[in-house]
Amino acid sequence: MAWFKEWLNPSLLVLSNGKIVQPKRSPSVIIVPTLIFLVLASAVITEVDLWVLLKRGYQFFVIIGRMIPPDWAYTSTVLKPLIATIMISIIGTLLGAFLSLPLAFLSAENIIKNKWILNINRGFFSIFRTLPVLVYALIFRFVFGPGAFAGTLAIALFTWTIMTKMMYELIETVDMGPFEAIESSGATRLRAFWTAVIPQILGQYISMILYNFEMNVRSAAILGYVGAGGIGMLMNEKLALREYDRLGLILLFLLLTVYAIESTSRLIRERLN
Amino acid sequence: MSEKILLKYKQAPKTWILNWAIVLSLIFVVYLSLPYIEYNGIFEQGSKIALNIVKGIFKPNLALLVDFSSKDAVPYLMLETVAIAFLGTLFGAILAIPLAFLASRNIVSKPVTHSTTFLIAMIRTLPAFVYGLMFIRVTGPGPFTGVLTLGVSSIGMIAKLYVEFIEDLDKGIIEALDASGCNTIQKIRYGVIPQLMGNFVSTTLYRFEINVKNATILGLIGAGGIGGPIMFALGGYRWNDLGALLIGLVVIVLLIEAMSVRLRKKLATGQ
Amino acid sequence: MIQFINVKKTYPGNVHALKGVSFTIEPGDFVAIIGLSGAGKSTLLRSINQMHTITEGQLLVNGLDVTQLRGKDLRHFRRNIGMVFQSFNLVKRTTVIKNVLAARVADMPLWKSLLGLYTKDDKIKALEALDQVGILEKAYVRADQLSGGQQQRVALARCLAQNPQIILADEPVASLDPLTSQTVMEDFVRINQSLGITVIANMHHVDIATKYAKRIIGIKAGEIVFDGPSSSLTHDDLTKVYGRELSKDEIKGDA
Known about the structure:
heterotrimer, B: mainly alpha, MetI-like fold, 12 helices, 79% helix, extended, C: alpha/beta, Rossmann fold, six-stranded mixed beta sheet, 10 helices, globular
């Protein structure tokens, strides 16, 4: 127990030449108990039930087991929603990315000098950024009815909020020298921005679009669950019907699609740099 | 104008061809996609609903918003959501450690890293949502399922980031310890762990932020947290409740983000 | 013709960057402005094209009171003035010719400038400008592949593509090695003499200033302490400008 006391309250050290040093208490004294408390509190709040997990945990693997081999015959039914999912992502991402540029321009410290406009813009986006894409999908589904349109809008909105932040952070790191040069030659700020700043960020912009596209394909799959188009609806159906082999097929396709997109995206991003 | 200028002019590389090709193919792809996105026009109800939602946000159900005693009110739901994210992230972070080491090229042999990386990629590709649907079949609805789901789904991304840090390990420090006569455990304790600790915690915090949002999504399928009530409020046309819930959601996420940013900065720069 | 009449520039916090400077620059002059860092050189130079504003006094360019210019008129005025910077300020990732063409952007209709649709005429003029500074062969090379001296010449070409009457140069050779500095300064001289463009340059290195410029203006703490032909610059005058004796290598600007 001596080490415990020492950890809690480190004692003075006396050096051979007589100097006295008071070691500082390690931050772990605060961190460890806090962590333990948080874990226990969370466990209670989330009704952690390890017993159930032990008893029924194997079910998870049963499901996985039944997913392999997948039901190959189901492929034709899966394709259309899958393509819809991809399309929703493409259009949603492009729309969101396209709209994010002007807003990013308006939120960048080195372009806009007016603190009010700057902070209102950023605050506005912070708030919208907190809502997960599914919440938007739900709301849009209620407004526009079920279907891919709601999903596309949701993705567009979500991408818009994310990309604006990423873009204005990027714009702020840009070298303003060329911008100054073009402005001094008599061009408006807008043109100077376009000619001097955009070429510097274009590569990263495309990179970000691809990254968001990857993420959105995964989300688009989920959107179907709330009836906003895509493959999610099918997935939930199959789960409910316990047609795990068909679910396995859907997941397999999803996996392949995401993998294909990721690889292509990585290739393109490497070429850009 | 002189001959050589004209000559140089003609030498211009024909980049415009590539640019036009890209733009045209993009337009083509978008054109192909449009039929999949049928615009049914706004439901006559639609615009009314949108208006109601906005009204609900500006006039939230205050009782729901500030009732700290009820389990169905916003504060407890926020707490529950955060707890789910916290435990889930912790769970995933711990499980990710061995997996990450098994995927690092400077720790194990190539075939092992390849198969582990593949495994990690597979785990990562499945959306958390799908894990949720699966876990509900196992542990039933409720926040615990949320924890498990977030745990498993986080492993992928966390492990991937961990691997990057492990592969970046500065061998020099370990060499120095070796030279001063430390055994393997000491080398790990004093050489490896200090280097990795900060980054691991940073990664975990980052994932925690994301998981708070994921926890909400999982709520929509019944895995606890503020997501479920949001869906019910929406479906039941209880706009003021929805407003209160959305406000609660925005507040938690903003708070967690702010805290996470500060903590991560502290980890990175020591202030 | 550029006229400074008792020009003052005070920054908030009572920092007096310029304390009442007056002088006139005739068309075709080649003036070098020397002085310590922070003496007011940059403020002086940039007030000519109103990149910095002045707080008092009159600044006339060809009879026009530039402090009153706003918006479209200001931009129109700036079209006639080219500016060269110490850090070249090229868009590094694009080609040399695209950088020079950027000078034409201010004149083009908005939609054309956004899409980068330069006319054949524009492109020929850009190539001619590049030829005038002797780097025509690098026209289609990416800007960051060039050496410092070459980049500065591209910047100079960019100015020339504007057909300016005046070129302002803010420490144009401070980032270049002595040999390259000479080449660039020779370009300035050539442009000044053959095209009659007024050149006003802020310079660090006194010997380069006196070697190439016809006239020197020395600034110290916001006031002009020397204004005369470069040939008449004495050792004592330098002490006045820099506030102390300069050692040999400071004059040569080697370090």
